[in-house]
Predict the structure of Probable septum site-determining protein MinC.
Amino acid sequence: MNEPNFQLKGSAVTAIVLELYQYDTQAFRDALQEKVSQAPALFTASPIVVQLDKLESTLDPSLLATLLQDCQNCGLQPMALRLNDEQAEQLTELPLPRLPALNSRSRAVEPEPSKAASEVVVKTVVEEKIIERASKIVTRPVRSGQQVYAEGTDLIILAPVSEGAEILADGSIHVYGPLRGRALAGVKGNTQARVFCQSLEAELISIAGNFKLSDALRAERWKQAAQISYQDDQLIVMPL
């Protein structure tokens, strides 16, 4: 029997979502450039889903093309659009694949009120799925370029996590060693998830799509044992 030429497999991928509420070309461009400049290593060349189903105004094909071009000019790589049914009818020829609007079982991060003409909110995709499983335990170092994901459970790592590595869990994350890469807990919306580490040196900490970058983390227990939780709409860093 001949060996198959390919295999189709399911995979868990962390995607950045650009969720748009209002759209003014110049205001959007300025806000996006500012957001990307805060963490170029995180956003540059990152695939994103452009979510338009909460947009208050109509977006015609020419404006959509401008929006996507602005994303590319900032180094982002749009890979799909999230539209509601009405928008899909208006935009008959889509430049990217369409994802359905989030349903009632999905958890959304509510935006804070803003007077800006255009507000850009960048978050990870949050979809509710509750599965109880035994914790995933990793005994070897997680090196740069590697990704470890604990689906439906907590992630326990008994070794260092290097810069450039990414660890994800639907539950909490425990690192018994230095945490230098990116740690994303509660990736499917669990705001009760936490991140624990023996030495906080992370590039990014995220809980349920809410994140802090290394610049902010350096002011709070940097290179010390720490736990990070989500409280009052923000990430809180505390002693471990």
About this structure: Confidence is low (pLDDT under 50) at residues 104-118, 124-131. Residues 25-38 form the longest helix (14 residues). Residues 103 and 127 are 9 Å apart (CA to CA).
